[in-house]
Amino acid sequence: MSRTCLSVNMAMTLDGKVCRPDGKWYGLSSRNDKRRMDQLRAEADALLLGKNSLLQDDPVTHLRYVEGKSDPRPVILIRTGTLPVDRKVFRHSKTKPLVYCTEKNAKEVRSTLSELTEICVLGPEDIESTDVLRDLGTRGYSNVLLEGGPRLNDSFFRKNLVDKINLTIVPFVIGQEDLPSITGSSIAYENFDLQSWKLIRTEVIEDEIFLQYERRQ
Ligand SMILES: NC(=O)c1ccc[n+]([C@@H]2O[C@H](COP(=O)([O-])OP(=O)(O)OC[C@H]3O[C@@H](n4cnc5c(N)ncnc54)[C@H](OP(=O)(O)O)[C@@H]3O)[C@@H](O)[C@H]2O)c1
């Protein structure tokens, strides 16, 4: 059986930041970027979303700019605590989001989200990205889109699980040095300089650039 394909989709400023100083991303992506995001989502069957992004940005996760396609199923990883039920992903999803949690917070997650989501316990205290992809594969999801944030992306990049990177460069410079990029933690990836990515597509629309890279085999 072929492995589930995992694509990252992120937007960053000209100086490589993926959030504003207040920890949110409102107002920096154009309508063109949102349309492009929906095109990528329409090709995916599952959409991985970070817990902090849902808390801070509360993104719209259903398709608005593409017609006649199904929304990918939202998939959320919650390692500690739970999420408020008022998030858009819980209120507007056509299919019940799938939530991965741990044995440690399963009770809390079930008490808040069992009506709105399907819950799957995947590890005692942590959720391994490899287990997530494997479980999604056994559920029949073959094309998964990972939309950040950087911490969630890091857990997949660190295990070499990312096959494609879709990147939008937006025309702003923020300047604050401690804001995150598309991925990362305090430790660099081993042999990062031996693994360059292959540019397979570029598109310029107005002041934004859309880039698509894939992992070299
Ligand atoms: N520009 C863009 O395209 C874009 C897209 C998305 C987000 N963002 C920005 O990204 C920021 C949020 O990113 P973030 O890095 O702080 O958080 P995040 O990646 O959205 O969420 C990370 C959290 O998810 C939970 N989690 C559960 N299992 C995990 C695992 N295996 N690996 C990693 N995390 C796991 C952890 O919280 P618990 O341990 O508490 O469960 C972790 O702290 C926001 O500022 C948002 O605006 C930007």
From TrEMBL:
Pathway(s) where this gene product acts: Cofactor biosynthesis; riboflavin biosynthesis
Gene3D superfamilies attached to this UniProt entry: Dihydrofolate Reductase, subunit A
Boundaries of every Bacterial bifunctional deaminase-reductase C-terminal domain copy: 6-201
Pfam families named among the record's database cross-references: RibD_C (PF01872)
MF annotations from Gene Ontology: 5-amino-6-(5-phosphoribosylamino)uracil reductase activity
Source species, domain of life: Bacteria
Protein name, as recorded: Pyrimidine reductase
Organism: Leptospira perolatii
